[in-house]
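discrete fold record:
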Amino acid sequence: MNTAILLIGGNIGDRPKYLQQAALLIAARTGRITAESALYETAPWGDVQQPDYLNQALRLETELSAPALLEILLNVEKEIGRVRRQKWGARVIDIDLIFFNQEVITLPQLKVPHPRMQHRRFVLAPLNEIAPDWMHPILQLTVNQLLDACPDPLPVHKFAAAAH
């Protein structure tokens, strides 16, 4: 059995609904979600002229290989309505494979651990909730240590959904 750590996020439309839909499809098609963080609202990274994101970290147990998992995750993005127009552009859903076991994977379509995760507070804060002691296999620092050292100044807050 393999353990994958994912980050899901989006900033268009009904953000909580799309994250929930993504988690349900991921669980149905890839394995079992064994931990999920709270939802975190975060400022956009890269192209900052767009709405704030909601992000959530998931820990997944799967029998799939990393490339097979990635293929399913990309199909889930498409099914929910992801259209890739511009790098760092607004999106209904984004699913990133952050860690896969303690493997280092370098393929044209897949780099694990995610190559920029240590520079992004919006990745590290939710990951720290579900896997603070997870060791980065290249940097040899835990998620908690990476968060403490993260240079990203953008705010990340737990999301409090409005009462209906």
The first helix runs from residue 15 to 30. The two ends are 40 Å apart (CA to CA). The helical segments are 15-30, 66-80, 121-130, 143-149.
